[in-house]
């Protein structure tokens, strides 16, 4: 059995990780830590749906204790905390999967440019692996430190990667218009996120200024080995969870829809959680919510030689906790689907 610890257990990411791991046949949750306001509370008191399933206390973070008792530690914490916790956990022999952005960027300056945090562990970036299983499985298998991708980058990169990998994007430029549910903002009281503010509304935000944009560009560039330009337009919609990304790009050459679908099928032929829709089949949030699947469908405007890619995920599962467990499975030489189907 794999002994797992979760730091940040009372947030949405931590809650979803607990839910998934409770159904994982090879994992035992042994330690939980949370914000000091929850210290000493049982997790089934914080989240009553866990009654009769798990009653561990939420503790303060003690890196030495977590490293001693856990084979893997999930850091479901805000940006900046993994920089503090990861060194001690790794030194004690635990594998670490970080949900925040602390270990997603290869360039410290790029991280500090988009996050108001001084990165004090630049050496750890050299050993960190970006945890996108569909493209980095071999590196993930050998890693001790994973930077779990952001939810928007997961949807956009999976949707656009086959185009970049096969040099099909004119000028290496895409527009990614993404609709997202409110849970992406985390479990905190924010006026714009309360139901009366959200209901019946659609709200664009951080257009041309969202910090997930450079992450998308970095990963697509690594996949294609050429610069990638992403115009990212996030919009908040009145649902609790889910992302549907509409990605448009002008094609570098004429190609039929059937040929495009074949490119996608080939790219993801060994990816158990990517489902490619047939011609004319478009995804919906309800098809993926609660699952670790990414549903991708294509449309083609022949007149303008524009491809429209729809990529749909649950931001809390494939965009967060489910992808983290998928990474853990790879790290411990388990089938990627273990505990996720």
Short description:
With 341 residues, the protein is α/β, with parallel strands linked by helices. Helices cover 33% and strands 21% of the residues. It has two domains: 2-127, NAD(P)-binding Rossmann-like Domain (Rossmann fold); 152-315, Dihydrodipicolinate Reductase, domain 2 (2-Layer Sandwich), CATH 3.30.360.10.
- The dominant shape is globular
Second CATH tier, the architecture of the largest domain = 2-Layer Sandwich
Helix/strand-derived category reads alpha/beta
The portion of residues assigned to helices is 25-40%
Rg over CA atoms: 20 Å
Number of folding domains? Answer: 2
CATH level-3 fold name of the largest domain: Dihydrodipicolinate Reductase, domain 2
Number of DSSP strand runs: 14
Count of DSSP-assigned helices: 12
Mean pLDDT: 95
What is the end-to-end distance?
19 Å
The CATH homologous superfamily of the largest domain corresponds to Dihydrodipicolinate Reductase, domain 2
Order of helices and strands: EHEHEHEHEHHEHEHEHEHEEHEEEH
Strand order of the largest sheet: 3-2-1-4-5-7-6
Largest sheet: 7 strands, parallel
Uncertain runs are none
> In percent, how much strand structure appears in the residues?
15-25%
CATH class of the largest domain: Alpha Beta
């Amino acid at each position: 059995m794999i002994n797992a610890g979760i730091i940040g257990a009372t947030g949405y990411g931590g809650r979803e990780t607990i839910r998934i791991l409770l159904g994982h046949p090879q994992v035992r949750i042994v330690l939980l830590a949370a914000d000091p306001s929850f210290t000493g509370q049982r997790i089934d008191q914080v989240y009553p749906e866990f009654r009769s399933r798990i009653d561990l206390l939420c503790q303060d973070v003690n890196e030495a204790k977590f490293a001693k008792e856990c084979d893997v530690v999930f850091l479901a914490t805000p940006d900046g905390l993994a920089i503090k916790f990861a060194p001690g956990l790794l030194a004690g022999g635990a594998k670490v999967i970080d949900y925040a952005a602390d270990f997603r960027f290869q360039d410290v300056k790029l991280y500090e440019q988009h996050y108001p945090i001084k990165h004090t562990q630049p050496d750890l970036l050299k050993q960190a692996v970006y945890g996108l299983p569909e493209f980095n499985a071999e590196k993930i298998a050998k890693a001790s430190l994973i930077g779990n991708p952001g939810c928007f980058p997961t949807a956009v990169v999976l949707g656009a990667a086959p185009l970049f990998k096969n040099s099909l994007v004119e000028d290496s430029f895409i527009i990614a218009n993404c609709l997202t549910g409110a849970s992406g903002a985390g479990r905190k009281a924010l006026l714009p996120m309360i139901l009366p503010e959200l209901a019946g509304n659609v709200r664009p935000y951080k257009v041309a200024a969202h910090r997930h944009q450079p992450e998308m560009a970095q990963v697509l560039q690594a996949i294609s080995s050429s610069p990638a330009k992403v115009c990212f337009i996030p919009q908040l919609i009145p649902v609790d969870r889910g992302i549907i990304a509409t990605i448009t790009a002008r094609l570098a050459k004429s190609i039929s829809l059937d040929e495009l679908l074949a490119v996608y099928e080939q790219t993801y032929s060994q990816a158990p959680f990517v489902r490619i829709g047939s011609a004319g089949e478009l995804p919906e949030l309800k098809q993926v919510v609660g699952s670790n699947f990414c549903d991708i469908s294509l449309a083609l405007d022949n007149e303008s030689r524009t491809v429209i890619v729809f990529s749909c995920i649950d931001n809390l599962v494939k965009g967060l906790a489910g992808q983290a467990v998928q990474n853990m499975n790879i790290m411990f030489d388990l089938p990627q689907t273990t505990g996720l189907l």
